[in-house]
Amino acid sequence: MRVSTIFAFRHIGTNPLGPLLRCTPIQVQKIQRARASSNATSSELEGARSYCLNLLQKYDSPSYVLQTFIPRTARDAYLAIRAFNVDIARIADATSNVTVGTMRMQFWRDAITKALAGSPPKEPAAVLLASAQENLQSRSEGIARLSKGWFLRIINAREQHLANQPFPTLVELETYAENTYSTLLYLTLSSLPLSSITADHVASHIGKASGIAAVLRGFPLIAFPPPPNHHSNQAAFGGVSAGGRHGAVLLPLDVMAETGVREEEILRRGADAEGLRDAVFQVATRANDHILTARQMLRNLRAGEDVGHDFEHQHEEGHSYSGREDSNAFAQLGDINRAFGVFLNAVPTTMWLEKLERADFDAFAPSLRSPDWRLPWKAYWAYTRRKF
Q1: Buried-exposed string 186-205: b where 16+ CB fall within 10 A, e elsewhere
Q2: Segments making up each domain of the chain, as ranges
Q3: Where in or outside the cell (predicted)?
Q4: Which of 11, 90, 162, 352 has its CA at 20 to 30 Å from residue 151's CA atom?
């Protein structure tokens, strides 16, 4: 159908083309091209959706639980984004060497590019992502879209750590968390769609906390790798995979130096290594600081005040706010409330950090490996009260 024909429907009372009528001709053409190329059958979409749900349930149960709190219109995007994250987080575990892992990362770069262009490969997460992108463009009248740059940022950050090299500094670990877990939250916010500097700012702190906690959670599995292809129910939440390689210690080197803990001592003595609990405490404290900062930001907004500090990433690629940077506290709080389901990642992160504290910062404690049955209730409580 030609664009001129589409606009001929403007004066008809009931029009099946819906939001297309309010698009510019160029926006209509983009949406039509996406629909033509990504037109998966309903059975294919249902199969892709089911696959992604099963993947999360098996490897990332917190995300599986929290998908309930994502608006239904954006839920396919959430499932695709999180399934994508599980797959690339497992690459180090599922491949025998860095070269093979790099090839798999390139597969995902190509898959993301094709999916967002409307021509996904026969990969369930990519099929669902293409459909979610089409749906997002339709809901936003061709304006909003998922950022390819953010997907590539996640892939690049994961690829840099395929060999399980330690983080030079705690700041480098924060950067890794920003480029992975925070970026997952940015993508989810954009799928609502919501373009808000305040929402992104809160998401940045929650993502950094989640990413740091994930590295701590995965630390024992990296130091003492299980047999190849052995997975826990929380592999993706653990952030990094052990694979069948020799043990490695991913704790920041500056923290290890400050606390006097040595890699060889950890690999020899495990939880009994001198200074290890002090090192874990320092890293966990940084994660908790980000949760506390996000909470304080919400308190400031509810008091009608500014969030309290600038968003350090606001000028980076993908962050565009169309002149909304100076909106008042009431409008910013409205953005936060609308996106609150996305921020619930803070709940399992906080619960795990609390368990770590109860274990006296012994990262090897068996209690830290099991799922927490309280998460659904805690998440519901946080969502209804808009607190985390």
Answers
A1: bbbbbbbbbbbbbbbbbbbb
A2: 23-385
A3: Mitochondrion inner membrane
A4: 352
